[in-house]
Design brief:
The chain has two domains: 165 residues, 2-Layer Sandwich (Beta-Lactamase), CATH 3.30.450; 144 residues, 2-Layer Sandwich (Heat Shock Protein 90), CATH 3.30.565.10. 43% of the residues lie in helices and 20% in strands. Helix 4 packs antiparallel against helix 5, helix 6 packs across helix 7 and helix 7 runs antiparallel to helix 8. The longest helix has 72 residues.
Length: 396
């Protein structure tokens, strides 16, 4: 009868073998190749991978004979699962551990030479052995012993790789289902957002037409034209962002003048930037999706304006520099700054470092995703004396 520890080992071994899904499958080509190499290196006619459950021994791959299943009680390898070192026995008929085993006595086989190296998972669970044997007395030199151990490790690597591959397939299937749901959600969101936006745009156009007919009413500095242009850009932004969500990052790239984009953003944020001194330096032309890059700049400038410091006049500067093979664009403010402990997490979805200002916590994570799709990066650095530098780099 096996003790409590042995029963616990059996349970862990059974769970590991179930995860590897190797017991009842046809021999895998990769495993057969390793077993064949083991037999050749050790100079023996027979080799196998023996996997041990609580009741049976399964041969997952074999050369020199047909793989089969036997009871655990008859298994030679089951008797050495608790050994601390590889087992090499020149003549099993003279070894007290094996001399009465049916694979040695002639009932099931006539094994004389026997060598086995345990198969140990990354979690430290022994699931079986790589075993080489012969019906003649033999010896292994040190190089052969080392090679047997190396091949045993490669067998576990193969099983682990297949385990990861199956997990990846499940993840991809789940991701495909998630993308299907996202597509449906994106279509609904597009409808829900664009319907009132279209109504707003139409109302603004009607209002402009009516005001133009009554020349006595003056529209201040093209205010309605700017509002109509802004609603049109918002509609395009909704289309592009939802396309991006639906297509998994498909971009509509062209040459984008970031100076022009910033000018559009400043118009749209006219109210938010009231009282803010904004300085814009020369900005580059890059290759990218113009609407998505505009979303990045709008988020950064909007945040810089919203998180202003209560005790100093707010300033924002936008500048760029060529750094190696990239354009680095910086949005620098003198606002509240980002606490050091939060700088690593502010780009995660639904994360907000300062909840005193209204926000959703998805703007910066969206920026990071957009820039990643462009092959770029996004970061945040502190400004001496207070404030933040939000920067992004795009391939030049």
């Amino acid at each position: 009868m096996r003790g409590v520890d042995e029963v616990g080992d059996d349970a862990r071994r059974t769970a590991a073998l179930a995860a590897y899904d190797v017991l009842l499958k046809p021999p895998r080509r990769e495993l057969v190749a390793v077993v064949d190499l083991a037999a050749r290196i050790c100079g023996v006619p027979m080799a196998t991978i023996n996997l041990i459950t609580d009741t049976e021994q399964h041969q997952a791959a074999a050369v020199g004979f047909d793989a089969s299943i036997c009871s655990r009680e008859d298994s030679m390898c089951a008797a050495i699962l608790g050994e601390d070192a590889p087992v090499v026995v020149p003549d099993a008929s003279q070894d007290p551990r094996f001399r009465d085993n049916p694979f040695v006595t002639g009932s099931l086989g006539d094994v004389r030479f026997y060598a086995a190296h345990k198969l140990v998972t990354p979690d430290g669970v022994t699931i079986g052995t790589l075993c080489v044997f012969d019906d003649r007395v033999r010896h292994l030199d040190e190089d052969q012993r080392v090679a047997l151990g190396t091949l045993a490790e490669r067998i576990v690597d193969i099983l682990e790789l297949e385990l990861v591959g199956r997990a990846l397939q499940r993840t991809l299937a789940e991701l495909e289902l998630s993308n299907e749901r996202l597509t449906s959600f994106a279509g609904q969101v597009s409808h829900d957002l664009k319907t009132p936006l279209a109504s707003l745009s139409l109302s603004l156009e009607v209002m402009r037409d009516q005001l133009e007919e009554h020349g006595s009413i003056r529209v201040e500095d093209g205010l309605l034209d700017r509002a109509i242009d802004g609603s049109s850009r918002m509609a395009r932004l909704i289309d592009q962002v939802l396309d991006y969500a639906r297509l998994g990052g498909s971009l509509k790239t062209e040459a984008v003048d970031l100076g022009v984009v910033v000018g559009q953003v400043l118009q749209d944020l006219d109210g938010v930037l009231a009282g803010v001194e904004v300085r814009v330096g020369p900005l580059p032309v890059v290759v990218g999706d113009p609407v998505l890059l505009r979303s990045v700049l709008q988020n950064l400038l909007d945040n810089a304006a919203k998180y202003r410091h209560p005790d100093r006049a707010p300033t924002i500067s936008v500048s760029s520099a060529r750094v190696d093979d990239c354009w680095r664009v910086e949005v620098v403010d003198n606002g509240r700054g980002v606490p050091a402990e939060a700088r690593g997490s502010i780009f995660d979805p639904l994360t907000r470092a300062d909840r005193s200002v209204e926000g959703s916590g998805i703007g910066l994570s969206t920026c990071r995703r957009i820039l990643s799709a462009h092959g770029g990066t996004l970061g945040c650095d502190p400004v001496p004396g207070g404030g933040s530098t939000f920067w992004f780099a795009l391939p030049a």
